[in-house]
Amino acid sequence: MEHDTLAKRLGLILTRLNTGESLTLASLAIEFNVTERTLQRDFNERLNYLPIKRKASTYFMDPKYLGRQGYSDIKSMLDALGLNKIFPSFDALSFNRLEDSKVAPFLFRDMKIEDDSGYEETFKSLTLAIQNNQIVRFLYKCQTYLEVQSYRLVNDRGWWHLAAIHNGTLKSFKVPNISKVYIANQHFKRLKKVNEQISDGSMIWLTGPPIEVVLRIDSTIASHFKETDIFREQHILKILGDGSLLATSSITDQKQIIPILKYWLPDIEVLWPTALKQTLMYDLQHSIDRMSI
Questions:
Q1: Mean pLDDT of all residues in the chain?
Q2: Average pLDDT for residues 134-141, to the nearest whole number?
Q3: Which of 82, 164, 203, 260 is the most buried (most CB within 10 A)?
Q4: How far, CA to CA in Å, does 196 sit from each of 1, 203, 266?
Q5: Could you give the C-alpha distances from 160 to 56, 178, 227, in angstroms and in order?
Q6: pTM above 0.90, yes or no
C-alpha cells in the first residue's frame, strides 16, 4: 500500500515545513524508513509546487510563505495524487496536530513497496513529459514504442505503471521495464474520457488481450470481496443462496491472479477458464512435491 505511506509522509513533511522546521534528508530517511533518493523525489517532484528552499541536504519553507499551507492545501494534494479515499474522513487527518502528538494516530502495516533504485531517471523523464503533455518514445521489453501519449504514472499494488495512449489504445507499461526515454518537442491534447478511464481503473493492460475469469467465493470469505475489489476489474455477478458469491475478474496474464487465488484457498474456486484452473492445480501439486522431497 505505497499510497498509504506516501500520503502520511508527504502530509507530515508539509506540516513540519509549514511550521518553520528545517528538515534533513538523513533524519527523514531514518524516521520514515525510506532512502534519501526517495525523499529527494518527494521534494523535487511531488512537492515542487511549494516555495521550498534548499541548503545542502536541508530543506525549509521560504519564510515569506510560512503558515500559508493549511488543511485545504493538504486535502487538494491528496486529491491530486488519488489518495483521497485512504482516510474515512478528511476532518480526522489533523495533520497540523500530528507534529505535537507523541503517538501518531495512524499506522500502516504490510505495505508493498517496489525497489525503485534502478529507474529514477526514467521516472523523472516520464513525469516531466506527463506534466507538459509531450509525446515520448521509449524501449519496452526490447521493442521500441513511438509517439506515445503519456497520461499518468499509476502505482498499482506497489508497482509503478505508465498509463499511456499508443496507436489509439490505452495501455499500461511497467515502469521498471521502460528505458531510453526520449521526450519529443511535440505535444498532445489530453482527453477527459481517458483521464476518467485511468482514474476508474478500467485499463487494458499491455501484456495481452483481456481474459475473463469466473470465480466461486465461499461464504466464509465473501464479506472481504463485497467490501473491497481484491481482483482486477472485479464484479460480483450473484449472491448465492448459501451466501457464497459468483464473481468475475478481467486479467491479461495468469500471474496477475494466481498468487491471490493461492492466498484465499481453499475457500475460492476457479470456474472459468479451465486453463487457469489447471495451471493453479499444477502449481499447487508442484509445491507439494517439492515439500515432500
A1: 80
A2: 94
A3: 164
A4: 22, 10, 36
A5: 29, 11, 25
A6: no
